[in-house]
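Budget justification, computational time. The allocation requested in the original proposal was used primarily to generate structure tokens for proteins on the priority list. As evidence of use, we reproduce two of the resulting records. The first is shown immediately below.
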Amino acid sequence: MIKIKLYLVVFISMMGLVMANDTENKKAVFAAGCFWGVESTFQQMDGVKSTTVGYIGGKVKNPSYELVCTGITGHAEAVEVEYNPNVVSFEKLLDTFFQLHDPTTLNRQGPDVGTQYRSAAYFSDDEEKKIIESKVNALNESGKFKSKIVTEIEALSEFYNAEDYHQDYYKKRGIDGCAI
């Protein structure tokens, strides 16, 4: 009986340690032009568990790609990144976001033009909002870009998954990324 009690104490203690160190994944959403390349970049980062391409920031429920492309829905093409904050920080994701596109061009990335291709970083709480604002201010002051950053800083709103054929677009085609 003593061995069973000792076993239970050790087992419960070990489970408590495992559970205490098991941090839940978090989600971040970024819009930086065509979502295929944005998704591909984030997928390659350590600590990123999954990515989903979709639409955010518009006024139409369950928009389609065709409708978003008209520019009338107000949605941006975006990527929802599920990540482990013990492996990669929100700040590191944000650094990558600012490296993978030109945040100084309004409603345009490369050949893609329209409000659906705008630069936007979405926050889920005041801390993330402050981190984004601080990063934008630091980049503007650094002179890294010739123009001021026009990235929108918005509260997370309804995120709609894009159609299946857009998910993992580059992986499905066996290519590494956009040829721009």
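The second record produced under the same allocation is shown here.
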Amino acid sequence: MAKRGETRERILNIATKVFFEHGYEATSVKMILDEADIVTGSFYHFFPSKEALFESVVEKFLQDYTKKVCSILSDETLRIDVQFHLFMNELQNASKTYNHELQGNKLHWTMQHALHNKTIEAMVLPLSEMLGRHIKAGTIQSRLDVDPVTLAAIIIKGIEAIIHSNPCDVSNMKDQDLVKEQIVDFVRLFFDFN
């Protein structure tokens, strides 16, 4: 007999797979239960609704994403330009996953808003720590007289605005390169690089 934690983890893993294959709207609790070979009572013991399960799936996605971002931004062996390049790649990968695999554009606006805010929140601290390290080391100087957390939030919001104001195809490399150039130009507005 499976332990409680194993059952919850199994539901979560299968739900992630099914949500990624079919998107939120096209996925039913029954589809998840059938694939996981779990009874309805077990599902509702751990998750009160499909929405709650989806939030758990997204939370796991954000934890995995945050680990990747943190490993890039905390790597002191990388130059700041390399860190920003890798950071932007992770942003684009997360955007692809959200839009194409989770079909985020088909979610209710309240769910989209909550997911978006969680993603932004997940990036501010690791970026601010990286910026603070580089400012302290003298590899960059901020042109704004603000703390690293505020600076990171401004940069992330600006990057977000650039991404969302460019109706580009995220699978098109030319479009991706154009957005990256715009983001690099935007980030350079805030720093003098030494």
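A brief technical remark on that second record: The chain has eight helices and two strands.
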